[in-house]
Amino acid sequence: MKKSLLIASVMFLGCALHTDAQVSRWFKRFAGQQSQAALVRTYADSLAFYKAKLDSIQRENERITSETGYSPNPDGRMYRLFAPLTFYHSPAQQQLRLLGDGGNDAVSNGVDKALMKVYLNRPDLVENSELRLAQVGTVAEKVEAPIRQDVELSLKVDDPQVPDTAPVEVMVEKPKFWTIKGNYFLQLLQNYISGNWYKGGESNYSMLGSVTMEANYNNKQKVKWDNKLEMKLGFQTSKADSLHSFKSYEDLLRLSSKLGLQASKRWYYTAMLLAETQFMRGYKNNDAMVYSDFFSPFKLNVSLGMDYTVEAFDKKLKGNIHLAPLSYNMKYVDRKALVTIFGLDEGKFVKHDFGSQITAELEWNFTDNIKWQTRFYTFTTYKRVEMEWENTFSFKFNKYISTTIFLYPRFDDNTARDDHHGYWQFKEFTSIGFNYSF
User: Fold this and answer.
1) H/E run at residue 13
2) Which of 235, 378, 381, 424 is such that its CA lies 20 to 30 A from the CA of 343?
3) For residue 254, what is the enclosing H or E element?
């Protein structure tokens, strides 16, 4: 009686589960009635049933091994036990058979029994059905035999005979120790002011040309020799000056040479030479006196010390700083009338001094179009000080057009003291024009 009742119950459950729509509605209604505590119990029970699946597979493998004498290989049909729980028809059909096992093997029977046990005890865990899977697509068939391409060799080519040794042409390139570079610019400025301009002023024209050339030697070991020649010349006109049609406002001829022996990664033992004068005569408005000239003055400085190479901000700031505790400075004035103006004794044309010197030359590229170049120079005999600080700000509009702002404060307590500025001197100009570098 009990067996008949069990068979009838199974038949009723199989028929009910066969209809996918009824299965889904029943599962949702059953799941919706669960409380939070029931969900926790559901999760714990699912873990126990998955363990039961594994145990049943293990027992089936042990039974097959004992009967046949070999361990069965993993079968893809066992995937049903570990995938999200799906209602398959075969477990119900297997239980509803009156006779025999339907010709299924041990693996299929074991999988169907495990799934049927879960269907009967925990129908709420079922997430999908075999009918839906069939609508989505079939499972790929197992490839029984390897697929082979029917390829026919049309031409057989013998292996090329590669010689053991191939001729090699050795080319030795002479290392390049010298680096040549330069910068040139020519800038023009025109300023017109009408005679009745309410603020006053005067019209003028100005021009500034600059040439900077460098020849640097580096043997990539320990010796460096840097050479730089700087030439600047600027003219301007002034209607207020009745004696001169034009006069210079920027005049420089300077040569610097530095020989260094590397002491560490950034430090060099250095001997440095600086020579500086100008091209043209220097005048003041409505004054016939010459205030400076070629070799009036001429300055020569020789120093021994150490150089420090500066590299910062991803190499956007580069340059060097020269520290010389031993320095010899000579000043020569060719014009007799100017010797006292430049700090020489009356009747003498040459002055010799010994002291210390510091020179720093830095270049900072803020962006591709904005650059700051600075040169700081100071020499002291510990009785007097001469200091210069040149600052050039370049704003580049394109490859050839640029604007330049030049700021130049200077201190020299070996000259006559000015009532307003003391020993300080200052020069500034702004220009726009043509620029070229190589």
Assistant:
1) helix 2-18
2) 235
3) strand 247-262
